[in-house]
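Task: sequence in, structure out. Protein: Acetate kinase.
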Amino acid sequence: MTAPTSTPTRVLVLNSGSSSLKYQLIDMRDGSRPAQGIVERIGEETSRLAHTPLREGGGGKRERNGPISDHSAALKAVAEELAADGLGLDSPELAAIGHRVVHGGLRFTEPTVVNGEVLAEIERLVPVAPLHNPANLIGIRTAMALRPDLPQVAVFDTAFHTTMPESAARYAIDVETADAHRIRRYGFHGTSHAYVSRETARLLGKAPEEVNVIVLHLGNGASASAVRGGRCVDTSMGLTPLEGLVMGTRSGDIDPAVTFHLRRVAGMSADEIDVLLNKRSGLVGLCGDNDMREIRRRIDEGDERAALAFDVYVHRLKKYIGAYYAVLGRVDAVAFTAGVGENAAPVRQAAIAGLEELGLAVDAELNAARSDGARIISPEYARVAVAVVPTDEELEIARQSYALVRGADAPDGTAREALVRGAEGSNE
Ligand code: ADP
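Result:
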């Protein structure tokens, strides 16, 4: 842990879900985590807080079990745990609290210091993010009540994608209907796409402005993006996170007429179809499992449904790589990230296979090697770099929050300009 100084150097990052609160206290000087943890099952009898302080040699993890009634109680419990480690919310070293907010619509193109008007706007976006924005709002309000004097920064999952041109963001439907209901492609996972595209440039020894990158964020949710010179020009998720790649439990792209058909022929309600496509589709719908490790194990045992699920998953991924190659025209790197992207070598191998004519190839040995850091897995002769770049959404939220409130480059050298494009204009 780094010694305290008079300048605030820490950011508390909060990711508030409907029944959970994840937190990381990040020291901006070196990206270390003096403490992190999670509160789960908020509002139930069996709530659990798991708190992990950074200790020499590890250890020191603490747990609280028992009812935590709401997010306010959860954050108070987190504050107590932090205080017990000398890292309380009243610490002068805290520069800001950074909040992950899923939907920022078109209004929030940058990280934004929260005030009453910003809260009202996030609230106004609830109809397009009914599962996420209400939970994010509770987290922000709770933190504001505990530290009203500290800047609270909202960092939006959609912000990185607001640079998409209309040609990529518009659905080809009646414009009046679309605009009346704010129907357009927003994209999600933006914090990860921003971080990974920038780290990929760093890996290539170039500035973000110099490189075109296809980022494949393959977690349980999955999305692809085409990033030209540090700016997103297309992404695979749309109005909601349902569009695009095959995911753990989501179908990704589907003919919208399937939904009318299910209503008319199967008599399913809109809510039932919503659950089918978001929770019972994708890998889980195809083979019953959404964990790529389990799917690979089943394939090794000759399981045909698991093999089908893998093939559908990879086919869609390959289509997006080709599509974004065409969108970008010139590609410098394809970067794999998140749980599947960082760990599943067979997915990377299969997605890139056969794309040699596009300058894309994977070196089997480099692909199989395991490492925690960012690395290139393409052979030296390949025209386009294929890379594995671990994502770190919390660090990105902390960097953006810090850059905004301190008006400075991140202490690790990431330029403020790259983190908060034109932030001054967006915070009035
Ligand atoms: P989330 O979207 O929930 O943040 P993650 O990015 O953590 O998800 O990714 C979770 C997924 O990553 C798991 O469902 C699993 O399919 C995959 N995964 C994790 N570890 C491995 C591994 N070692 N090999 C293959 N797949 C993995």
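The chain has two domains: 10-156+394-419, 205-388.
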